[in-house]
Specification:
Elements: H1 27-38, H2 44-54, H3 65-78, E1 82-86, H4 92-100, E2 106-111, H5 114-126, E3 133-137, H6 140-149, E4 157-162, H7 169-179, E5 180-189, H8 207-224, E6 229-234, E7 240-245
Parallel strand pairs: 1-2, 1-4, 2-3, 4-5
Antiparallel strand pairs: 5-7, 6-7
The protein binds S-adenosylmethionine.
S-adenosylmethionine binds near residues 1, 63, 87, 92 and 93.
Protein name: Caffeoyl-CoA O-methyltransferase
GO molecular function, one term: S-adenosylmethionine-dependent methyltransferase activity
InterPro entries: Cation-dep_OMT, SAM-dependent_MTases_sf, SAM_O-MeTrfase
Length: about 250
Amino acid sequence: MATDGGSSMPNVQSNIFSTNKTLLRSKTLYKYVLETTVLPNEPESMRELRILTDNHEMGDMASPADEAQLLRMLIKLTGAKTTIEVGVYTGYSLLATALALPDDGKVVAIDTNPEYYELGRPFIEKAGVAHKVDFRAGLAHERLNELLADEANHGAFDLAFVDADKTSYGRYHEQLLRLVRVGGVLVYDNTLWFGTVVLPPDAPISEEDHRIAAAVRDLNASLATDGRVEVCQLTVADGVTICRRIV
Ligand SMILES: C[S@@+](CC[C@H](N)C(=O)[O-])C[C@H]1O[C@@H](n2cnc3c(N)ncnc32)[C@H](O)[C@@H]1O
């Protein structure tokens, strides 16, 4: 989550909602993708939650519909049964996950703000997938440490989706590498931070965005050379990085 760090410049992600959060330079092309492939295949419960979220004051935090479709596809392709989500907000990506998991699947979902989650919970319940969701309120590094304290959780997860405070991704990566099994998948959201990663230091964006862009650049450099994972950078949404744990 980015807030304006006291700078007079707006954050780059302001006014971004579920139908225009993309690095694609052609809005027409993005609209075409959404209208042709993404939105017609979006489950009704997700559509309802997306609309509620779009109208929320922090609506720009939600993953866009094409990214949620990618997440559902990844879960199904990998046959993931046990996953972790770091950064839930109203639960749009969480609902995508819960719908994609098999009936006996589980997602441990972590967020500091249970009030946001409560907004989305009725949609998760109505979709009949609440039994797959284990929501844990609190700071992600603390909740992940609690999971790590139980050795049974080591290597027990098939996939993790990280979409919380961007400056902590490096820390989460170290924790998640112990929780996700070899061959499992770690997905990081916002890894191009609206394109700011290539802006010069004097670019007219907020101090907060400069700070996040620097952290995301460090993360990308570190993931690209991390011998424990195979990495793939996508330009979906504002950057999604997929890592496959190899050792
Ligand atoms: C970008 S939103 C998540 C969006 C969600 N994945 C979706 O698709 O709708 C980021 C969330 O991370 C949570 N968050 C921020 N810092 C956190 C931290 N240190 N630990 C846990 N959650 C955190 C915020 O409360 C916010 O709900």
